[in-house]
Amino acid sequence: MENGHEAIIKGVVTESTWVYHSFWGKVVEHFKTVDDRVIWSGMLDEPILEAGDKIYIEELDKTVNITEVIRTTKNRVLYMTDYEVERITKSDKTEESRIRAVDEWFEKKYPHLKKFSDLNKEKSTSSRKNTSKIEALKILLGFDGEK
């Protein structure tokens, strides 16, 4: 192919991480890029694409956004994209971040209690009996628990 270039197109692997947002008083899930993987390679016509361009990958039946363009030492062009190849939602890291975020939420919301099981005791004696588990689930899912 004349006036073409060898291209490598990569997508991203994201992993879930949980954080406590003190301003909102909520535990929320975010996804961060932890790896990248080749989703296509071959020859492309000139000109070289730029960040912000889109390309349709017929083999995937997907249009992806080019986020970064990098030249390799073998004179290829590496296109980084926002295409999510894999989303990791369950791992030791994600579980640790979820526990840490819930612990932080608990310490801020109930500073007078020493442990989460004390919340069950306190809630069962209040007028809102046994709502602590529901409230905790709402917090984990991003609801404020006050509605």
What is the SS-derived class? alpha+beta
| Average pLDDT | 81
Approximately how much helix is present in the residues?
Answer: 25-40%
Q: What is the spatial order of strands in the main beta sheet?
A: 2-1-5-4-3
For the terminal residues, how far apart are their CA atoms? 62 Å
Total DSSP E strands: 5
Computed Rg: 23 Å
Total count of helical runs of at least 4 residues? 3
Outline type:
rod-shaped
Q: What is the H/E string? A: EEEEEHHH
Overall structural domain count: 2
What descriptors fit this protein?
147 residues, alpha+beta, 2 domains, five-stranded mixed beta sheet, 3 helices, 5 strands, rod-shaped
Word description of this protein:
- This protein is of the alpha+beta class.
- It folds into two domains: 4-88, no CATH class; 92-140, no CATH class.
- It has three helices and five strands; from the N terminus they run E-E-E-E-E-H-H-H.
- The protein has helices at residues 92-109, 116-125, 132-140, and strands spanning 4-21, 26-45, 54-57, 62-71, 77-88.
- Strands 2-1-5-4-3 form a five-stranded mixed beta sheet.
- The longest helix is centred in the last third of the chain and has 18 residues, at 92-109.
- The model has no long low-confidence stretch (mean pLDDT 81).
